[in-house]
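Tokenised fold entry reproduced for everyone:
>
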Amino acid sequence: MKLISVPSAPFSGQKPGTSGLRKKVTVFRQPRYLENFVQAIFDTLSGQQGKTLVLGGDGRFYNDVAIQTILRMAAAAGFGRVLVGRDGILSTPAASAVIRKWQAFGGIILSASHNPGGPDGDFGIKYNLSNGGPANEGFTDAVYQRTQEISAYHTVDAADIDLGRIGELHIGEMLVTIIDPVADYAELLESLFDFERIAALLARPDFRMRFDAMHAVNGPYAHEILERRLGAPAGTVVNGTPLPDFGGGHPDPNPVYAAELVAALADSRSGLSFGAASDGDGDRNMIVGRDFVVSPSDSLAVIAANYALIPGYASGLAGVARSMPTSCAVDRVARELGIPCYETPTGWKYFGSLLDAGKATICGEESAGTGSSHVREKDGLWAVLYWLNILAVRDTPADVIVREHWQRFGRNVYSRHDYEGIDTAAGDRLMNDLRARLPQLVGTLCNELRVAAADDFAYTDPVDGSLSERQGVRILLEDGSRVVFRLSGTGTEGATLRVYLERYVADASQHEVPTQEALAPLIGLAETVAQIAANTGRKGPDVIS
């Protein structure tokens, strides 16, 4: 095996965001761009010689080319073995499951999550640690520092390998094992849920479901688990073949981009009882009942409240955790259960230390991500099976389950307004202006609402003591409502301003007030305080979820 060192020079902007490095495909296809970042990862590691690396992605455009490049570089870096999903496919939660089952040294996941794909679309790469979870900020900061001083990358002289055939081969002394991307993950989920009871539900003539894989990575997983192992009728899974451009769609499971699924569940003629969707890399989910979209925050709360119905969790929950922008609905469940509820910054990596320390069992983010201690990533299909297990035991429609939950705990009326692709400088200016005005906001009356507190959220990890600052501006009101402003780190162009709006309603007679109507005073406050239109030039959000 011939080792090759290729001279290189730094690229600006190779700083990982919330979940790795995400840029346009055209950026990644620049000579040495991908190689530089991969070399920076390998240079930051220590002790990988002879160890196992897991490698795969969501099947988007450039996935296959990147895998061949990374395999040759892994051989040069001294890895002894690489486990690769057949055809380069591994959903993000499945990659975490494989890392954990085979006690791998770590893994590289190729995905830009819910962002569009194709030659003009997005691409991404991130490193996961041996616990199966995303690398922490200390590691990603070191990787970024290395990208700014790199002078060469290292590879080997080897031909591309056939990724479509399960089996073993070598690149020099490094063993490459092409694995079934579904098997280990499906086995893990089967150990958590009552498959027999779910299968009985799916066999009932009065129950029909639809799972929209959005032409993304979860198609093969849903076909195997829902249709083959659980016996759902053929055709239950739609858009189930992963495509490099996701069929020209936007693989984000929300009412805007999965509008066909929402419409089908709203149409009584469809005969559908339950719907679900997942995103590009399979870690996000959307749950839909009859003419009823379950908000991710409500879904997390319902999942926590019904833990005793699920075999894998019936012995009890150590605690729950949510990202700061996620609604406080799960907090109310935790209080009744007498377990801790942790509030963390956005990013699944912040849940990792809680899960590893046994402090939390179930975690969730408002951006359609829920999961548990079974892996160290959020998990879209896990959430769908959890809901199916609840439905099978309670024999109650999803919309009724949520409404009964509101009756018991009250309703946290909640929405997120996204302003996508705004000018980065304008987004930074808006946030900096907000931060500067925080001390003056406390005690003032804004849009007839009294501000009780205002801060820039900071988090001290209760396990390792690490501090994360500037994680989102919070406006907390005297009536318990709140507005949160945050710039997202998951896009590839410009900035996405996310505005989170939450109001607690205990009065059951007010639970059916339309969400945007109930939140109208908060929407007005957000515009008044942040001057969104003036700062961004936008008259309204691009996506409301």
Observations:
- The first strand starts at residue 3 and ends at 7.
- The mean pLDDT is 95.
